[in-house]
Amino acid sequence: MSSERTAGAVLTVDLAAIAGNWRRLEDKTGQGRCAGVVKANAYGLGMARVAPALARAGCRVFFVAHIEEGVALRALLPAADIHVLNGALPGTEAEIRDARLVPVLNSLGDIERWQAFCAKCGEMLAADVHVDTGMARLGLPPSEFAVLAAEPARLSGIRLSHVMSHLACADEPEHPLNGRQLADFRAALARLPRAAASFANSSGIFLGADYHFDLARPGIALYGGNPQPGRPNPMAQVVRLQGKILQVRDVDTPQTVGYGATHRFTGPGRVATVAVGYADGFLRALSNSGCGWFGDVRAPIVGRVSMDLITLDVGSVPPHLAAPGAMVDLIGPNSPIDDVAAAAGTIGYEILTGLGDRYHRVYVGEAAA
Amino acid sequence: MSSERTAGAVLTVDLAAIAGNWRRLEDKTGQGRCAGVVKANAYGLGMARVAPALARAGCRVFFVAHIEEGVALRALLPAADIHVLNGALPGTEAEIRDARLVPVLNSLGDIERWQAFCAKCGEMLAADVHVDTGMARLGLPPSEFAVLAAEPARLSGIRLSHVMSHLACADEPEHPLNGRQLADFRAALARLPRAAASFANSSGIFLGADYHFDLARPGIALYGGNPQPGRPNPMAQVVRLQGKILQVRDVDTPQTVGYGATHRFTGPGRVATVAVGYADGFLRALSNSGCGWFGDVRAPIVGRVSMDLITLDVGSVPPHLAAPGAMVDLIGPNSPIDDVAAAAGTIGYEILTGLGDRYHRVYVGEAAA
Fold first, then answer.
1. Using CB atoms and an 8 Å cut-off, which of residues 204-263 of chain A contact chain B?
2. Residue B43 among the catalytic residues
3. Are residues B279 and A44, on separate chains, in Cβ contact within 8 Å?
4. Contact A185, A217 (CB under 8 A)
5. How far is B351 from chain A (nearest CA, A)?
6. What is the Cα A122 distance to its own chain's centre?
7. In CATH, what is the architecture of A32-223?
8. Chain A, 137-196: which have a CB under 8 Å from a chain B CB?
9. pLDDT tens string A303-327
10. N or C: which end of chain B has fewer CB within 10 A?
């Protein structure tokens, strides 16, 4: 709804960088072995633009969380292979079939319902089976897996697409759970009917070829998040968020800033107010913690992030850069999403998926993608 | 885009409660002295539904943050008095005039540009003047105010609608800044051309009649947030968020839950996985901290909130309530927005403005409103 002129911020999404990141991951996993995770509106960046860019780069298999995301993606990519991680809620089977989605079956109950639906349709409809190996979130727990392994007929009538599992601690390469999950997943595969296997998320790809199997499911790494926290980020940055300065004011007497008077200037200073706030997903946890960048000059957030505004200490910024109408980088070359997240006590994923509706969004690199 | 059947959660917004809250506040401020703040899509609840409900309740004056919000509101309410808090960015004057919006002028520069625009149009266009008395965010700082007070001709040609200021600590009634801001605001009014005065936000209304002036600007209290933290909430709850259970599983061996393995079951237990995550604005800060409610039975969040899912310990919940397809209250009678916010280390405002796009939204109480 916004125009660059009236919006409080401009969000630039680099589709060529997303495509490049996907190709880099596919190089690691091997051709045809790398999917693209585009749930949550492609991690907040806009599935309608991101998914076609991935498809042009060669991505053929996509994962979403919700059925409705799958339906929307089907309209964009008629030929894609689309998997729905949250699976088939009771009563949604027809929607899944009609959009030719592949539900991930997470429990014996899911399998039983999908089998019944296939029988009713007289058609072997595709589905994945998710075996839990350590998340305790979705997927068959050990007790249900034992039943399935003992009674493979529970899968008859279903076209088994992939057997999958999900890593809990892949971003901590030394975590003992990684190796345990890998061993448990291999053991599970050996006890189920032959099917393609899918295991690694973004960080899992970097745990080594043992973790790759037939299909990796990267998400955050496509969008520039570092799959190897604490090491140099191998992925290209995708997002830039520039906030617009509404007002710059001098502080000449001791003065507090913002709600709760949590920041105090004791001497002269300068404050720039920027038209971005927590209603734009710029988390309130960044109060007195995050920063903006004017080129290479850092301007700390002072006071609390409010709903529609933040206040920056621009005392060190050349005045011609910090002026009403000028832009300041909130996410950008000097403040990648992982750094913004760290300042907010969270992870880059939450920064991305929170990116607000009020930003004016610009997509670049479409031709290259 | 969602249907109740396929969505991962249902968000119910009670328009009658919003209307009732507005009337209660208007009772306190006096007839015609209570505006409605509907910025940030009416605090995440949907301006298109909320603003007409407020108008039917008698609200005539509205505040938004962005010009584009004002333009959208104008299309909904042709006769309303609509004020834009973030004011007139350079080059946006024509949009403001065309939508008959009242910009809040926050600096001498804003005033100068609006005056020039009025002269160019040959029309006295309405505007507010915002005098800062302690936020250091938007509004004329003391140095600029002194210039304006000494040179009232700077306002000639402008139809001065309101002089306003904004409280920094109104939710802390004992905070000394409240009284200082009140005194400074009165002093400012005395030195400016006669105009209506607007000062109190939600909490400010509860600081007493001295703070009411001609127009109060409540936001959060309309939407059920407690304007008097630490005391009983005088406002009716507006929002209910019910998450859908995807899977319930037994834990029979010692087992960790979720990313980073941050929660450990040491004995038998039961986990319900719910289709709501931080991509829905259900903050990651609620990891191992928030809860769901099955009627009056509390089910703690165990493990990290992930992008599309949370996991609840439902060991104490009757099995027929915690079953696949059943709903759990994440915001509701037992967990009002302020409690959810406290568990996340934030304020109810951020919980509301973060409410996600993937929820199936239901509006009730429209007739009563």
1. 244, 246-247, 249-253, 255-261
2. no
3. yes
4. no
5. 9
6. 37
7. Alpha-Beta Barrel (3.20)
8. 137-138, 141-144, 168-169, 172, 175, 177
9. 999 999 999 999 999 999 999 999 9
10. N
End-to-end CA distance of chain B: 25
Restricting to B residues 106-135, those with a Cβ less than 8 Å away from any Cβ of A are 106-107, 109-110, 132, 134-135
User: Could you read off the pLDDT of A246-283 as tens digits, one per residue?
Assistant: 999 999 888 999 999 999 999 899 999 999 999 999 99
Write the single-letter amino acid at A186: R
CA distance A70 to chain B (A): 11
Contact B41 A357 (CB under 8 A): yes
B353 CB near a chain A CB, below 8 Å?
yes
- Chain A / chain B CB contacts < 8 angstroms: 249
* Residues pairing with B272 in the sheet: B248, B312
Closest C-alpha to A228, from A247, A198, A207: A207
Q: Do A6 and B142 touch (CB under 8 A)?
A: no
Work out the minimum CA distance from A258 to partner chain B, whole angstroms.
Answer: 5
- In CATH, the number for domain B239-335 is 2.40.37.10
Top-tier CATH class for A239-364? mainly beta
Q: What is the ipTM of this complex?
A: 0.96
| Residues contacting residue A100 through CB under 8 Å, at least 6 positions apart | A74, A82
Bridge partners (DSSP) listed for residue A271: A249, A313
pLDDT digits (tens, 9 = 90+) for B168-205: 999 999 999 999 999 999 999 999 999 999 999 999 99
Q: What does the DSSP assignment read for A247-302? A: EEEEE-S-EEETGGG-EEE-S-EEEEEES--GGGT--GGGTTT-EEEETTEEEEB-
Architecture per CATH, domain B15-223, reads as Alpha-Beta Barrel (3.20)
Q: Is B252 helix (H, G, I), strand (E, B) or coil?
A: coil
* Residues B44 and B355: beta-carbon distance below 8 Å: yes
